[in-house]
Amino acid sequence: MKKREETSITTVWQEYERGKDYNYQQQLYEKSKRNYNFYFGKQWEGAKLSGIQPITLNIIKSICKYKVGVVKTNTYQIYFNSDTYKNQEERENLKDICDMLNRYANRIWEKTKVNKLIRSCINDACIDSEGIIYFYADPDENSNSIYCEQVNKTNIYYGNENEDDIQKQPYIIISFRRTVEEVKEEARKNKISEKEIELITEDQDIEEQAGRDLRTTEIVPMCLELLKLYRGKDGKIWAKKCTKLATVMEDSCLEIDRYPVAHILWERVKGSARGQGEVETLIPNQIEINKTATRRALAVKLVAFPKLVANTKYISNTKALSKIGTTIEVNELNADDVNKVVNYLKPASISSDAYQLQKELQEETQNLAGASDTVTGNVDPTQASGKSILAVQQASQQPINEQVEAYKDFIEDIALIWYAMLKANSVKGIELVKETKDYTSNTTLEETYKMSYKELNEYDLDIKIETTPKSPFDKYAMEMSLENLLNAGQINFEEYVNALPQDSAMPKAELKQILKEREEKEKIFNEIEKAGNVLNSAMQQVMQQQEMNNVEQTGVTPEEANIVNNTQQEQIPINQ
Fold first, then answer.
1. Is the separation of the CB atoms in 263 and 410 below 8 Å?
2. What is the pLDDT at residue 64?
3. Rounded distance, CA 9 to CA 455, Å?
């Protein structure tokens, strides 16, 4: 029976086992668990303390939070452009399409909450060297939605562990922990035979899963599902899903030429697909800081306080020595001789070397990590302008530029994957919104534009990632610059509102609502004025027609009639 089971193991599972063996050789699972433990403050795990209360001074978390915070102060936006076309006319024709795609991309980006997962990936990269995100298309053929899922470092296996460029990997295997019923239902949708589906059973393969300490008891039956992504001979990406004994999805072409997986490495290491995080190098210093602080606390407990010394031979109630406000009864002694029986040892002086060592370790560790008190110190914004504060911050954040650039490349990889999947899955086309400005009525009009599947795949568009600083001082400096331009008359109020960032201190949404109400009122006034002009024109035409009729009937022109009237008015006073 055992031999039969071994021979029926799927090939994807066998490749997964080889990946596990390699990771165990590199101690990947152990290091990953240790990195997260030290970040979350579990820094004495496995230590033999013999009743000593340990002290934890977690400088790792403060360093990581500072560096991650610096990286996250930059926000990025997908920007399509047609710069790949050499012909100016073609670039101009595609400009409107690029604008529509930009609005569509940003709307989907917000709807699927990609930014939330990206921020979580940055945390993982800082703590454990690598943050990973996986994209997949909506299984509904009538939908072109794209979803994403974060993958833990211990749940992904590369065909080449020495190559950090994912697009150059021969294959990628991702493991998912899912319920047995969910996997069976997926297999049925993929038209797998019931005989094969019966082989999908519960397992206990949780040792390599992230958070395995909390997975000891699973409420519902669960199993491991493996997704293998590989590049076919046609250059396209293919996918296959398996459990240990069953196939969940046969080999299927995804119709894209990029792996739908992107990762960010906190720091690249030559010959490693995983890189290196911030925590691993700080652990030895963190251990020594904790040990030194614990030794100091123990030394203070032992010698920094007065100690009671008593000759219990002459004391009848020895328990009273440790009680407050009680009487100590002595045998065959005078009151003057009590000091000879009960006394205190004076506290010993403690060298400051231990404190200086601990302080030096903390300061030097933070300095070498680029997160010293000088860098992270508070600055009073009321005593300096936003631009000067920004200049100081940017100068102090130079060591983190490498991570900021890696973050930008990560977003760009995601954008390229997203665009490739959009072209492949939008078989029925996509609906875009085109905005046009009517300057005669001063209104913004929106119309729907249907972009076909053929049209979407024919265009060769560049994807550019725009950087937008997002720290409080960045926003303050930007808003002050816009206000200066508005006050100088270089821009009008509408341009000022449109230029404000979405999360500005100024209420951009309320200001846009004010502009919209102004446009509607101005539109009504324009319509009233237009109607008045039409009425005046009609009245003038009626009067002209009346004058022409009078001339035909009397033979007197309006000018001649005016002369006669003026003459009669001059003769009236003379007759009177």
1. yes
2. 92
3. 44
pLDDT at 7 over 50: no
Place of tokens 């031999």: 3
How far apart CA 351 and CA 335 sit, in angstroms, is 38
Residue type at position 118: I
In this predicted structure, the answer to whether residue 312 has a pLDDT above a threshold of 70 is yes
Grade residue 38 by pLDDT with cuts at 50, 70 and 90.
very high
Instruction: Work out the average pLDDT over 217-236.
Output: 90
- Give me the phi and psi of 246, to 5 degrees please: -135, 155
Is the pLDDT at 477 greater than 80, yes or no? Answer: no
Q: What is the rounded distance in angstroms from the CA atom of residue 164 to the CA atom of residue 269?
A: 9
The residue behind tokens 């029986």 is: 341
**What's the half-sphere exposure (Cβ side, CA atoms, 13 Å) at 250?**
7
Model confidence pLDDT, tens digit, residues 333-369: 776 677 777 888 787 777 788 888 888 888 888 777 7
Using a CB cutoff of 8 Å and minimum separation of 24, what contacts does 311-316 make? 311/340, 311/341, 311/342, 314/341, 315/341, 315/342
50's tokens: 């013999």
Residues 40 and 59: their CA atoms lie apart, in Å, by 11
What's the full length of the chain, in residues?
Answer: 576
- Residue 257 CA: distances (Å) to CA of 137, 174, 238, 358: 15, 18, 9, 54
CA dist 385 to 345, 389, 470, 473, Å? 59, 6, 17, 9
State the Cα angle at 279 between 276 and 283, rounded to 5°.
120
- Closest to 427 (Cα-Cα) out of 138, 108, 143: 143
The dihedral through the CA atoms of 12, 16, 22, 28 has a sign that is positive
For 36, residues 6+ apart whose C-beta sits below 8 A from its C-beta are: 127, 128
In percent, how much of the chain has pLDDT > 70? 82
Q: Name which residue leads in pLDDT, 128 or 474.
A: 128
- Position 4 scores a pLDDT of 39
Chain centroid to CA 450: 31
CB count within 10 Å of CB 94 equals: 20
| CA 243 remoteness from chain centre | 32
